[in-house]
Amino acid sequence: MSEVIVQIVASGLTIGAMYAVSTIGLSLVYGSLGMLNMAHGAILTFGGYIAYYIATTLGLPPLLGGLAAVAVGALLGLAVYIVAAQPLLRSRSFETSIFIATIGVGTVLENVMLKLFGAYPLPQPLAVGGDLEIGGVHIPYQNILILAISLLLMAAVALLLKRTRIGRAVRATAQNREAAQLMGVRVGTVYALVLALSGALAAISGIMISSLTTLSPTMGADPMLKAFIICVVAGLGNIYGAVVSALLLGLLEAIAQYVVGVRFGFATLLVLVIVVLIWRPYGLFGHRQVVRL
Amino acid sequence: MATPLLTVDAISAGYLGRDVLRELSLEIADGALVAIIGPNGHGKTTLLRAISGLLPLHGGRVALGGADIHRRRPDEIVAAGIVHVPQGDMLFPEMTVLENLQMGAYLPAAAAKMGERLDEVFALLPKLAERRGQVASTLSGGERRMVGVGRGLMTGGRLLMLDEPSLGLAPIVIDQIYDVIVRLKASGRTILLVEESVARVVDKADRIHLLDNGRFVWQGAGGELMSRPEILATYLGG
Fold first, then answer.
1. How high is the ipTM of this complex?
2. Has residue A31 got a pLDDT over 50?
3. Which end of chain A is more exposed for a tag (fewer CB within 10 A), N or C?
């Protein structure tokens, strides 16, 4: 029995940490710009494919593939700002317009990937083999690596927001955009940076997710949906809440898969969202007012 | 006459294509305290927002120390030396008092003098030194107002614009805030003050402008206004 618990906890934390990386990007963007980035899943997938292209097709070192994926993810995030967010910022119905515009960007990216890499599932080369045995349970090194990288990334983002000048500008913009402008913050730069950072994080999470499954042009849809669920459960725009919620939901999904079966894992998440929204419409970690970074 | 610190020349501005301000002009001399009074909804806040660049102009020009600033972004206007303490404070609610003040010193020129200015702000508003570690959203209304003013002072601008510093405060707290304003003027600061009530500014302002329906309908020294009961009755209801 204890082996089962270790197994569930290990797999739940890995899934949760992976979700957390893609969720903090989404949550940062919502917190600062008030936009739901529907292209997030496609950027995530693109990151996975870039790593594949560099490491497998070009045969270059896998680490270089990872770095290239991060760079491309950041550029795609920046592209979302330039082609969609910036032109719509002054629009009166920004939240709706940007939602639809980013669906468009996501669809374009998906079709580009379909054209470049085809529809067949491909293996992610950025993975390590072998496993670690703890008390009769085998935990793959890949899972441990994913957990470690995720925790490192989350700590790095927290430090960036709390301790750096640009991080303070991001928080200030999220908490009161006009006041930030009156302090001399150039909000356009903050928005561009946040989208680029979110794109880079999405790319890393794309590599991690595809290393446990496979690469396909539409693989981003499921993690993006889960990232949205985590955001809503945490309270939209609250990134610390998002990290905790991601880990909790990862564990919950692992438990549900074990107890009631794999196909009920996702359904359990959806039921949970409904319960949370009835009980606390502002999210688990939200205040009654909108909580920002 | 020397170049005024601020020149507002026939500006028009508003929302959704409708002009709230109509060809409004204003000059502020270096070191002066100028008050804009008038009923709510007649463009006082709009004027400050237009000067600080939050609201684009439909026409006219704004110059600080003779240099045009009206086509610049808000962050550039702050860098040029205009401090806008907005109505209702607009603090960063999840940040501490100290973090709010540090945000005031965000621009490189202000950051270089942050330590010195922080001492000045704490000397002027000692309550903020006491509360430095407290999260802004948990402060009282008066404390919040002081953080708003202190944060503005941290930017180190040459012109301080205050939008209804008495709004929503108890009379005793309003007196404290006005004490601070008088001391800032005494130390040589140029101040543009927006206020709804004549009584609060009449003995403190060098000049008073009465804003009604997007235009100045009267301007002059404070004492002069008190000797014109018909103006007070017409525009401010007595």
1. 0.94
2. yes
3. N
